[in-house]
Specification:
With 217 residues, the chain is mainly alpha-helical. The chain has one domain: Alpha-lytic protease prodomain-like. The protein has seven helices and no strands. The chain has helices at residues 11-15, 18-45, 48-70, 75-106, 112-133, 141-170, 174-216. The longest helix has 43 residues, at 174-216. Residues 24-73, 111-198 form the Cation efflux protein transmembrane domain. It is found in: Membrane. It is a multi-pass membrane protein. It comes from Ideonella paludis. Keywords: Ion transport, Membrane, Transmembrane, Transmembrane helix, Transport, Zinc, Zinc transport.
Length: 217
């Protein structure tokens, strides 16, 4: 993470941008739509990586909604919200690992062709959202969390496509389970990154408030 990610001078103008608000609304609607598609598709194909991706889409839609709510509020509340979003990313990662373990225990194999088709659709959706959010990737912790979620989703979609091909070639479930575990690792590391930046911003805000009180006295 670059050092200027915690630079507060850039946050107010970026987070209050009407363009950023429109981008978040578009991202929210795209993610909600893909969540519904992948929930249905995961049940039809038996793919745990698609189920994990559906949960990720739903979580991202919630994140975008929260991000819209915190636009224009004090920096300390943006940092606190980002910390909670980082925590949710980590919990999502743990949940995916649990689902992958259960699927491995069950021993079922997903339907590869449909899995690949839905994975390609999800990749197109995430690339469109990533393109919209790219200009805002270096804002405060809250904006950083939004960007990381979208970036991780695009990486995960490519992995789902690879897994679908390997499932088709091998006739086994392990590629699907491996991708689910990889997506969990991305969520865990991304969540830790966001939480650390949010903590740094909270310390910065607390230090500024203390200095103000000391100067005032």
């Amino acid at each position: 993470m670059s050092g200027h990610c915690c630079d507060h001078d850039h946050a107010p103008s970026a987070t209050s941008s009407p363009r950023y608000r429109r981008v978040l609304w578009a991202a929210l609607l795209i993610n909600l739509g893909m969540a519904v598609v992948e929930i249905i598709s995961s049940r039809l194909t038996g793919s745990v990586s698609l189920l994990a991706d559906a949960a990720d889409f739903m979580g991202d839609a919630a994140n975008y909604g929260v991000s819209l709510w915190v636009l224009g509020v004090a920096a300390v509340w943006r940092a606190r919200t980002a910390w909670l979003k980082g925590l949710s990313m980590g919990l999502y990662g743990l949940g995916v690992l649990a689902v992958a373990g259960w699927q491995w225990w069950q021993g079922s194999t997903p339907e590869a062709a449909s899995m690949g088709l839905i994975g390609a659709l999800a990749l197109a959706a995430n690339l469109s959202v990533a393109a919209l959010l790219y200009a805002f990737r270096e804002g405060d912790a809250n904006m950083r969390a939004v960007w990381l979620c979208t970036r991780n989703d695009a990486i995960g979609n490519v992995a789902v496509l690879v897994a679908a091909g390997l499932v088709m070639l091998t006739g086994q479930a392990w590629p699907d389970l491996a991708v689910a575990a990889g997506m969990a690792a991305l969520a865990l590391t991304g969540g830790v990154s966001v939480m650390r930046q949010a903590q740094a911003e909270l310390r910065w805000e607390h230090g500024g408030a203390e200095a103000h009180r000391t100067h005032g006295t």
